[in-house]
Give the backbone structure.
Amino acid sequence: MFRFRFALLCFVLAALSLPFSSARAQTDLSVYADSLSSGWSSWSWATVNFASTAVVHTGSDSIAVSAGPWSALAVQHDPFDTTGYGNLTFWINGGANGGQKLRVFGTLNHNAVGSGVDVGPLAANTWQQITLPLASLAVDNNTTFTGFWIQEFTGTDQSQNPFYVDDVVLTGSVPIIPPPPLNGGMAVYVDSLVNGWENWSWNTTVGIGTTIVSSGTNSMAVTLEGGGLSLHHADLSTADFPTLTFWINGGPVGGQHLAVNIERDNGVQPAVALDPLVANTWQKVTLSLAALGGGNIPDLNRITFREASGGSAPTFYLDDMRLDLAPPPAVVHVSVSNNQMIRTVDARMFGLNTAVWDGTFNTATTAELLTEADNQALRYPGGSLSDVYHWQTNMSDGQTFQWATNFDAFAHIATITQAQVYITANYGTGTPQEAAAWVRYSNVTKKYGFKYWEVGNENYGTWEADHNTRPNDPVTYATRFKDYMSQMKAVDSSIKIGAVILADENSQANYSDESATNPRTGVVHHGWSAIMLATFKSLGITPDFVIYHRYEQGPGGENDMFLLNSTRTWGNDAAGIRQMLSDYLGKNGAKVEINCTENNSVYGSPGKQTTSLVNGLFMADSLGNILKTEFHSFFWWDLRQWSGNGNNNSSLLYGWRNYGDYGIVTYADPAGPADRYPTFYVYKLLQHFARGGEKVVVASSDYDLLGIYAVRDPLANTLNLLVINKHPTATLNATFSIDGFTLSQADVYSYGIPQDDAAHTGTGSADVVHTKTALSGKTFTFAPAPYSATVIRIPEAPQ
């Protein structure tokens, strides 16, 4: 969604090369005491009075904040080093009415990072001290710290209900008790809500406990007022999480009678009662998810604590909450049915996005990298930028500078590497005539022969530039698509034209005055895809293909285990799109290909997960699952972008690179081993698995954290297995049973933790490892290392 905006920001910052100062401190640093301290300034977009005398904690003045929806008190400083600082502390008061719900973000280089920490609802006419570890704000031990925001985070107008802040201090760091080891599970709360969990409580005060903690510096101080503490997450599979564990303390009063329940898509599940809480005592509680009605389900989305009778309960404290990872089985059973074919592999499954901002693209280094990885397809000119890019001037709409890589520079690398090409024509600020001229220049004048042309990028989204009278409107899009298609094909009738789509009929319902009735079900829908397809039908046109983009997580909510379990639903997406094409376009729908031209782990603000080994494994697992569907293309976002350390670099995420980058390589020219991210090496590894023409065959594993995919190569007469160990710490003992194939000596290609560590230390090889192993019969054992991807190429033995 927001990849272009991030790249453009980095492009500008790199061009400016702004210097910054750094400082270290071991003693407390005042930010506000009656006035902002030297070096601090307001970047607020709420109405803020830094000299209010209405409600004061100490001294003569405080900060009065009247916050409209999503507005914030923002206090900023030139970048400096937070090493030696432990917490951000301040006093806050809800004013006459209270009730404000806020979220605090730390900033690096003046950009908010992480998922923030919730504060509130605030108590009326009451001063409360808030202590937030810098680690919980994702700004600890960082040289680019610039301050913080306190943001109204419910989208409600609090401009007539001011709150007050006073005595803001960065405190020196102090030793803290570390949380219990996670061992691959999913943390829910560690000093703050993490991994995409959010506070959806009602009639409940959820404060921050700083004196009653189990570990770290914070706990949740929960006061039930006839409601419930409710923690929400996007639908989550519990196949690998058998238990919920947390530490709980009854506080000064104790005796609370609590009940815990979970929710899933089909509703609230039966509650489990806890023993009465003990005053001032921490107790560890482990609950079976099966007992909560959440065992091995695909859609856990809520965990709720309530007083058992439905009434109120005095303040209690929760800390160190997590979903526990089950131990792996002693033996994982893998079966491969060599004679059960699913489909033929399309070479377009091995594609990369490229972009006009890549100043290193048209170089020998890029050609060598693409050849090394045996890339098969390229897309240009780059995501959301496509809807402002004018190919003839190599400029974006309204800008005066030219981009680093023009169309001919892109075409040079695409042609010498023999890549199939997807071009995204400018829909948002362009015209059908401009797109047709592009086709003429490409395929008639220059004879590049580029076959696949998209009309726009994610035009259902309000983040996309759209200068039409009704922007982001599916009827307008479908109507203009007809003009694009007719004019572009009038130049070259052999090209294929694609339209953007979503996987369901209700998403992106941008206009309430538009609807479409599904001819098969009779149900009325207001979403982009339904209305666009119905308009296509009424106009008598059929696109050659539809374009789908998929990103698994939102920024700040990244979680490694969630990501590695997320790829199972590609089949649902393919089935949903195919059903819509059939429903709305009738028999013509069968002619429409389904393509994926963007995929990565997070839709914006990439953090350290994007440059970690986990993202490489996710790439391989996505490919393995999409190969079992009817998708014809799969493009990774992207070849190069920009690295930035201002996003989610939480210690809860695996990896040694404390920065994010959507690219699979850096801009280094030439590129060394450390300039290739794990996504590059895994992409390179996949050339030994498939590259087009192979037959996908049925393969399965009885353990979710061992991914297994198989293809039969009829030319090489080999059976190729892709084996992905998604467990962070365990080597898995696997027994492979191969049906319909006689085994012989195999080539083994692998990439994992040792190779990733070698890129970090400079010791050992960072590249894919190639070994051989002898096999016989129809079964064999193999023990993939933790966090590894392996390709086993098995030639068929002579009969």
